[in-house]
């Protein structure tokens, strides 16, 4: 069944909420992964945290492409603790957005967000956008919006109020 009911009591963003997901898991994971933020590669390999793995050949800092583990590469361990914290939040936010993507109507809603300027008004000819923290694809902007909603909500609200409102609606914080 196509879920297209207008939900009541969702203020401000003017956008339809397609699913409610919880950011509690992101907050809990941020606490659980705090040790990884200061470990060396060797320390991580001696004491790997469940749900995380290391790949010496990974070209970027980390990815969430594997269903059962987030993969960390050498570049991750070159970051300071703040940088690592942000990468971990971003990769875990991918899990949350994966859940949203299962919902009917997700892509229409995402492009509606883009068109509303929620990820910034500057748009390139090929459809890419100059968005949150340099993200340029709509899906990565949404992931980043969830990550920053946890780590720097005031910054997100000030700079990307539409994205902030959408995340707050989606996680039920505006009720
Ligand atoms: Zn990403």
Could you walk me through the main structural features you see in this protein, from its secondary elements to its overall organization?
The structure is a single chain. By secondary structure, the protein is mainly α. It has a domain at 103-175. The protein has 8 helices and 3 strands. The chain has helices at residues 24-32, 41-46, 74-78, 81-101, 106-115, 138-151, 153-159, 161-171, and strands spanning 52-54, 62-63, 70-72. The chain has a 3-stranded mixed sheet with strand order 1-3-2. Strand 2 (62-63) and strand 3 (70-72) form a beta hairpin. Helix 6 (138-151) crosses helix 7 and helix 7 (153-159) packs across helix 8. The longest helix has 21 residues, at 81-101. It starts with 23 loop residues before the first helix and ends with a helix. Bound molecules: zinc ion. Zinc ion is lined by residues 90, 94, 140, 143.
Strand content: under 5%
User: What structural category do the secondary elements indicate?
Assistant: mainly alpha
What composes the largest sheet?
3 strands, mixed
- Strands across the major sheet, in which order? 1-3-2
Task: Give the helix level as a range of percent.
Answer: 40-55%
Tell me which ligands are bound.
zinc ion
| Tally of alpha and pi helices | 8
Cα separation of the termini: 25 Å
Query: What coarse outline follows from CA principal-axis ratios?
Result: globular
Nearest-integer average pLDDT: 84
Q: What order do the SSEs take from the amino end to the carboxyl end, as H and E?
A: HHEEEHHHHHH
How many strands appear in the DSSP assignment? 3
How large, in whole angstroms, is the Cα Rg? 17 Å
Contiguous low-pLDDT stretches (5 residues minimum) are: 1-15
